[in-house]
Design a protein that fits this description.
Radius of gyration: 27 Å
Strand order of the largest sheet: 10-9-8-7-6-3-12-11
CATH architecture of the largest domain: Alpha-Beta Barrel
Number of domains: 3
Number of strands: 17
Helix content: 25-40%
Shape: globular
CATH superfamily of the largest domain: Dihydropteroate synthase-like
Number of helices: 16
Largest sheet: 8 strands, parallel
Strand content: 15-25%
Structural class: alpha/beta
């Protein structure tokens, strides 16, 4: 049960030292209760109070770190059912399945193909994070070799999948430095898998045939000191699996059920034999509420839309996505290339830059900070006013890059043309198209 601000205040040192960034311990307690502060910000809280507060202020779904290296990530830690209530933070991790009987050369080829799936979008590098290595032969030596090859030759982190403790131990020996996820502790092997996870400090998936079946296994593992757990309720029926995801999330967030307060792993690859259908099921789990989602293969046509969906869902809905103010080169612009100015709303930037690329006309694109608003909204709100735009063009440094004195403004901001000219004496201000789709024809005509 979460503590109130007053209950937290009673456990604080009450020094009002201000080192936490707020004037009083009471203010800090209120921020801690509302999730706006971290307990580590207080340097003087006692160990006893820290233990009580850490437990009480922990998110209802435990955050878990998976993997090591550039593709390590966190899952869990969510505090709301719906992103519009606040936001979702730790994105659903995406991975592909590989069977342990694959030839070493084929594995090398597949990893190279999968590793190439990286997309730049709104300043983020979008890519899959995981390889799920599934034991299909019971050969611990083969499992060791494949786990070692994946861990040492790729950036991917691993999910090790086997029911056999001996095979799992071999996989851990081959890839333990990557901090793989162990899949899965079941009713028949919970003691052995729990011991492996505890010995090596690795996260562990708990699997049963229902949500209710998970509870005694979780209680047994947590009683033995294991905290980094993930859940698989077992169903591979699409409807039932979705219901299980919602039940687990609601039980943790609304019911305060700490036993079920762990992130989940889902397997669209085991729910259909069609890769397109897998992508649809995976899209459902990205929204509701998979911590990790595993596909049978990673292909551009299925992976890219999933990465974009994930990006959109895990973007704070109360803050627009933006790009950094400055000069952007589209193509290979030179001193005679046109100059276009627009706002820093990410969608505006990507649409405009995409249309410029399509025109094959190299262009200087000036992005002005308008607090993430689109052109029309920014103009209406006074964030894309003529004098501000003119001053921005002056200070941007574009005058050192071009010989001409013409700047193109968006058609929806035509009203600011006169003010821009006043701020840029000697310059010609050209009003461009209202719609980005007309930019290629406009540039080619010029």
């Amino acid at each position: 049960m979460a503590l109130t601000g007053i209950q937290i205040f009673k456990l604080l040192p009450k020094t009002n030292c201000k080192e936490c960034g707020v004037p009083t311990c009471l203010a800090f307690a209120m921020n801690l209760a509302s999730g706006k502060a971290e307990l580590d910000s207080c340097p003087y809280v006692s160990d006893e109070a820290r233990e009580k507060l850490a437990e009480a202020s922990a998110p209802p779904i435990r955050p878990i770190a998976i993997g090591k290296g550039v593709r390590s990530f966190k899952i869990g830690g969510e505090t709301v059912l719906y992103r519009h209530e606040k936001t979702f933070f730790n994105q659903t991790a995406l991975g592909g399945m590989i069977c342990s009987d694959i030839a070493g050369s084929d594995l090398e080829t597949k990893l190279k193909i999968w590793n190439a799936f990286q997309y730049e979008r709104v300043g983020f590098n979008l890519r899959p994070e995981l390889v799920a290595l599934k034991d299909v032969t019971g050969d611990k030596d083969a499992f060791f070799e494949k786990a070692k090859q994946i861990a040492e030759t790729s950036e991917f982190n691993l999910v090790l999948m086997s029911d056999d403790p001996a095979v799992m131990k071999a996989g851990i020996e081959g890839s333990g430095f990557k901090k793989p996820l162990i899949y899965a502790a079941t009713e028949t092997n919970v003691d052995e898998f729990g011991a492996l996870a505890k010995e090596h400090g690795l996260p562990l998936v708990v699997k049963a045939d229902s949500v209710e079946g998970l509870i005694p296994l979780i209680e047994q593992l947590t009683a033995n000191g294991l905290k980094d757990l993930m859940l698989d309720a077992g169903s591979r029926d699409i409807k039932q699996s979705l219901e299980d995801q919602v039940v687990i999330r609601r039980a943790a967030l609304k019911g305060g059920n700490r036993t079920l307060g762990f992130p989940t792993i889902t397997f669209p690859c085991e729910m259909t034999s069609n890769l397109d259908m897998e992508a649809l099921i995976a899209a459902m789990f990205v929204a509701k509420y998979g911590g990790i989602t595993i596909l049978s293969d990673l292909t551009g046509e299925t992976l890219f839309p999933l990465l974009l969906e994930r990006l959109n869902i895990y973007t704070d809905p109360q803050r627009p996505m933006t790009v950094t103010e400055g000069i952007y080169e589209v193509g290979n612009p030179d001193e005679n290339s046109p100059v276009i100015v627009t706002t820093n709303f990410a969608l505006t930037y990507f649409i405009v830059s995409g249309e410029i690329e399509g025109s094959k006309v190299s262009t200087w694109l000036l992005i002005k900070d308008a607090e993430g608003l689109s052109v029309m909204t920014a103009w209406a709100a006074g964030k894309f006013a003529g004098d501000d735009v003119g001053l921005f063009v002056k200070k941007s440094g574009i005058m050192d890059k071009v010989k001409h004195t013409e700047v193109i403004i968006p058609g929806y901001a035509a009203a600011i043309a006169g003010d821009v000219e006043e701020e840029l004496p000697g310059w010609t201000v050209t009003v461009g198209p209202r719609e980005a789709a007309h930019i290629p024809g406009f540039l080619k005509a010029k």
